[in-house]
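Q: Sequence in, structure out?
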Amino acid sequence: MKKTAILAASALLTLAAPATAQNLSNLRIMAPASPGGGWDQTSRTIQTVLQNQGIAKPVQVFNVPGAGGTIGLAQLYNSKGDSNLLMTMGLVMVGAIQTNSSKVDLSRVTPIARLTGEYEVIVVPTSSPYKTLGDLAAAWKANPSLPFAGGSAGGTDHMLVGLFAKSAGVDPRKMNYVPFSGGGETLAAVLGNQVTAAVAGYGEFEAQIKAGKLRALGISAPKAQPGIPVATMKSQGFNVELANWRGIVAAPGLSSSEKGALVAAMDKLHASKEWKDTLKTRNWTDLYMSGSKFDVFLKLEATRTREVLKDIGLVK
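A: Exactly. Output:
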């Protein structure tokens, strides 16, 4: 009798194991941008860790570029009920949904987790007369046409300049924002004194800051960041906090158990030593948040982003 019970239990366990694995087999991760960019790198890093840790096998990454990720978002929305499909996204997409008047927004898909982020810094050439963020703000208030360089219009850099303008008492609609398509062009503009200041993620400017060619006046983090000797904007009297975060969403129409399995997979990925080592190697800030907390965060971020873009004059 005991032997029969043991065999029965053993059979149940054998049946249960593949069922769990089946939920996380043949995963596909869409990078809604061209190969080589931030979303693509994040997607392929997730792919590697999920497979190496045995959390999901196999995992495929594919690219659907265009319109700040909103083409990929529409494709995800049209894959309703596909529990094997994930998409990497982030703050840039939150803004692009609004500036591109996308018919599909993030409320139409399934939030899974926020993973990483990078805080923004405001820099000036070391020859600049502005030694502090307060110096720059005072000069900017007196002359709103001072040019600031950053990435594409409506992107994270542009949003940060808009938030800084509002906090500094400058009308965001009057600010002179000069968008560039890449970090290299932004760097060249500020080093060549073509603009007064520039904005990007800290990593874009790190080498030039350490070489003494650029002066970092402030970072958009909520508190001082380990290894980054730059005062926060908040500590200097400017109520500005912004992270260029990246996360994962899934197709709409999933059951609670299907969503739960995907959230659990991201929780396991985040807890792994391989992921933590990867964050250090790539200089990615850990901003992990999953499940219902991420659902709420996305709604709040969409509202905040819309307000910033309205202030700038990019959306009505």
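Residues 1-22 have pLDDT under 50 and may be disordered.
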